[in-house]
Design goal:
Largest sheet of chain A: 6 strands, antiparallel, barrel
Largest interface: A-B, 69 and 69 residues
Strand content of chain A: 25-35%
CATH topology of one domain in chain A: Elongation Factor Tu (Ef-tu), domain 3
Number of helices of chain A: 2
Number of strands of chain A: 10
Order of helices and strands of chain A: EEEHEEEEEEEH
Shape of chain A: globular
Oligomer: homodimer
Distance between the termini of chain A: 49 Å
CATH architecture of one domain in chain A: Beta Barrel
Radius of gyration of chain A: 17 Å
CATH class of one domain in chain A: Mainly Beta
Chain lengths: ~160, ~160
């Protein structure tokens, strides 16, 4: 059975998921109240509806948290493992006309890496557990990276 | 020969690169003036030293650019394919004391995905080529994703 397509959507002939140029290792999981059906539209909505979330890392990565501080902003990168990877034009319900995948934040993309800018609210270095202010992904979503958020790097230059 | 370690650095017993929980597909390459030896320290330094860079996508992803505009800020995600993936504590030259990988923007990390917030300066939709204002990675770096940068999503909440 071919996958469901909405009007105007375009898929590649060959699913990018069939090609592996590099391998990702899951370094932990996000714990959130969200699952299919009750998840917020985006991180802004999540922030209004929730009281924090947790990142549980594989304990062997505990030393890699050295130097992070409560209150610090971080980028969390996670893998949207249920996403479709073959759509190049998509018609999400909230968008007026079909749009290219790279013009959307949809989880469906050739490499389903999502990211959120959040703040650290708690740190358990021994158990490699990080409290964060909010997240909009499902409970159990695999984590692939954590980086310090830096204004000089993560805000684009003014439009001149 | 074991890989070179600086004082205070800590590596995992087992390289995360040996585990593949998911596969990444390279969707294109970055064209920049940088190679080993002449690369800038970060995107801010790159911006001062260069006159733009180019992203050349695999042409099958051309439709995925529909809706992007010149002047728009985007996030470019790329794969630092020469990075070490086993370091959990690192001592980069510019940092005073060894620090955890997740407290650094070093390319060396379990999943070497880097990202930059840049602006689109040119768009060739037919050939899937994007001009951007600057980038700090080597010429030929593989690209894994492009996303619209959104202030409401990509700036962390105020520290309360």
């Amino acid at each position: 059975m071919p996958p469901e397509m909405r009007d105007g959507e375009v898929a590649l002939d060959r699913d990018p998921a069939e090609t592996t140029d590099a391998g990702v290792v899951f370094i932990g999981r996000i714990r959130s109240p969200w699952s299919r059906g009750n998840a917020p539209k985006n991180i802004r909505a999540a922030r209004e509806e929730m009281d924090g979330a947790t990142i549980e890392l594989d304990p062997r990565f505990a030393p890699a948290l050295t130097g992070l501080k409560i209150g610090q902003p971080i980028l969390v990168l996670y893998w949207m493992h249920d996403a479709r990877r073959d759509l190049v034009i998509q018609a999400p319900r909230h968008v007026d006309a079909p749009r290219g995948t790279f013009a959307l934040r949809s989880p469906n993309r050739p490499n389903p890496v999502a990211l959120s800018a959040v703040r650290i609210t708690a740190l358990d270095l021994e158990n490699a557990v990080i409290g964060i202010d909010a997240i909009d992904c499902f409970d159990g979503t695999p984590v692939v990276d954590i980086k310090p958020w830096l204004e000089t790097v993560d805000v684009p230059p003014a439009n001149t």
